[in-house]
Each structure stands twice: as structure tokens, then as C-alpha cells.
Amino acid sequence: MKVSNPTSRLKLKIPSQASVLDVGSGHNPHPRANVVTDKYVDDNYHRAGDIKVLKKQRFVQADGETLPFKDNEFDYVICCHVVEHVDDPAVFMDELSRVGKGGYLEAPSLIGEFMIPRGAHRWVLLEIDKKIVIVDKQRLGMTATHDFGDLFLHYLPRNSFGWKILQRTQQQIFTVNYEWKDRIDYVVEPTDAELKKYFTTVWDQTMYEHIVPKRSLGGEYLAAMGATADIFKAIFKSRILSRFK
């Protein structure tokens, strides 16, 4: 079941004693993970760099659809930007739920895939009524001829303060950020009309508000101030503290 919608994978409140698995850790493993896995060791097609393993982390090469771990072996499972690549998302989601007592899932949203299309992505996701809904991208006709991923994922985050604030205050536009306990509630290729309409019809005001809820003026102010503080904290850590290491 759904627990919350963290703003990012670095905002998770994981108990210090919890055993943590990162599935599909690739070039950017979560610093809290004890064990990290990836299917591809020598192929960087699905990631931005070579496999990386941090100190005190154990690496296990594994396919996310057949994880070599016992039931509930981990207290928390982190999986970021992997499910959109897999062959069978239902099997993959069930594996995450099987090996973990809870966890965090992050993946491009339907809107995010329209704005930042990636040729390697096979599936698009939305969270609707606390359920993750997964649909085949090609069946929606999403065969973009341009790939602006580097613009939105690398150039703007490095060079645009406004973009950084938007990423932090309206992250649900671009990604599904879903923290769960016991089991991930999902559906692949929905047949329910209320779920299908988000993928097959023009959205109206009600649908926009359902996916991107309105905030009060005070709420918008607090979100913007929090995002600004977070940006300056990140800049301080990367540019100032790094000099003393």
C-alpha cells in the first residue's frame, strides 16, 4: 500500500538499522543502500555511466525480474528509473514487493515522458488514486523523433535556477515518486475506463488537479522557499565542502 510521495530519493526517512537494497543502482547507487544490484555490468545503454559501488556496499549482478534474495530479506527497497525499461513490469513489481517489507519507487511519469522522451523507455506511469498505473509507450503512439533528455536532465539542472525550483516544487509532473509498505499497488494496461482515460483522452481541469493538486498561496510560498533552501544547500555541499575533502 502507498505510504507517501517523497519529493526525491534523497528525502527518504529510512531507519539507521534498516537493511536496504537498491535495485538497478547503475552509476548512481543510493548512499543508504547496503546491497546494490544491476542487470548490466558492461553495457551503459540504460544509464549515464559505468557501474558504481560505494564503500561498504555489496554488489550483486541480478535481473530485477528474478532477484536472488529471500522473501522480505530487506527492510527497504529503493528502485529509481528502472521499471520503465523492464520486459514485464508486473513480474518486476512483484519481485520488489517480495524481497522488501517496504520501499521507494521512482520512474518517469506520462507527462514527463512526453516532455523528456527517451528511446530506451518502454513504459509510462501515473499514480492515480494511490495506485501505480503502467502502460506500454508504443501503444500510445509515443515514438518521438527528438530526444531532449540531456537538455532537461543535465543542462537545465546545471544552468537554470528556475528549472531547479520547478523540479522540486512540482516533481509529480515529471516523475512518479511512490513510497510503499508491504506491497506495491499497481495495474498494467488498465481496462477500467476511469484509469484508461488519462492515457487515451485529452485531459480536463479535473484531471490536471487530480495529478497535480492545487496549493494555497501560502503553500506555494513555502514550497518555493523550501526548494530554494534545498538548492543552496546542494550548491554549498558540491562547491564548498568538496574543497575540504
Automatic annotation (TrEMBL):
Keywords: Methyltransferase, Transferase. Residues 53-102 form the Methyltransferase type domain. GO terms for biological process: methylation. GO terms for molecular function: methyltransferase activity. Coiled coil: none annotated. Pfam families: Methyltransf_11. It comes from Chryseolinea lacunae. This is Methyltransferase domain-containing protein. It comes from the Bacteria.
